[in-house]
Amino acid sequence: METPILTAIALWVGDFLQRSGAGASPFLFLPFVMIAKPDYHELNVPVRAGLWAVMSLLGLGLNAAIGALFGISFGLTIEAFLVLVVAGAVFTAFSPQALVSFIGKCSGVLLTAAAWLGLAMAVFMLANVVMRYVFAVSYGWSRESVMYAFAGCFLLASAGALRDDGHVRVDIFRERMSARSRAIVDLTGSYVLLLPMMMLALSVYAPQLANAWGGASGRLETSRETDGLPLLFLFKTLVPVFAATLLLQGWANAMKAASILAGAPLAEEEAQIAPPAA
């Protein structure tokens, strides 16, 4: 399916995201700022701006170290600088509760979408069974509908499940831990396992995603079945969506764990996105 304009836009967005990722890296240090000073968002604006500048230097230094270790260039591009400025404005304007709640709401929306996809999957499966065993017919698009709905269901639901503590844990150990011990495990797991793996997934999958959107051939990737759905490029886009949403929710969970360690746990109820009081 040839759509040169859509392909060009998608490739530009992907290139922008790759080149601008370093601009968001200071947020990785925010949970540790929360531990050291849980009321940092109550500081005046110049002090918060100065804190962001320090975190930015640390973030860029971390990117440079990772680049030197793996032979990857992480220079401060114009895109990364723009993201750095916008992220700094978000950091200065909004409280940690507001940021964590906003990410939680987004994960909740995806969880609802996943629930509807689960229902759609059940309907498609029933329809496939009826068509095959009652009418003796089978179509590629009907089989792919089940596959796409199933993939969308678990890929979109992952962030919401992480928010609601729905992923599998070793409960025999966790149930005996104190709230502080659980927070230490959650924070360590986020930074040692979850966040690095999601960042790696986004980086490694980028070339395949570009090809799916026509980066090599100029054509959007469609079904290999002659009567399949022409949506394979969207199907493959679910993978970076999965990684990005888990990355955001993992950071939000790290913020909640850090707030527990700081003795000022973030409220469970979802707050409105609004600047903190002056």
What does this structure look like?
The protein is mainly α and 278 residues long. It has 9 helices and no strands. 28% of the residues are buried.
In short:
The chain is mostly helical.
Topology diagram in text:
Layout: H1 4-20, H2 30-36, H3 45-70, H4 78-93, H5 96-133, H6 140-163, H7 171-174, H8 179-212, H9 232-261
Q: Structural class, please?
A: mainly alpha
Number of strands: 0
Largest sheet: none
- Strand composition percent: under 5%
Q: What's the mean pLDDT score?
A: 83
Helix content: over 70%
Unreliable parts: 269-278
Terminal residue distance: 53 Å
| Helix-strand pattern | HHHHHHHHH
Total of DSSP H or I helical runs spanning 4+ residues:
9
Shape: globular
Radius of gyration based on Cα positions: 22 Å
Main attributes of the structure:
single chain, 278 residues, mainly alpha, disordered C terminus
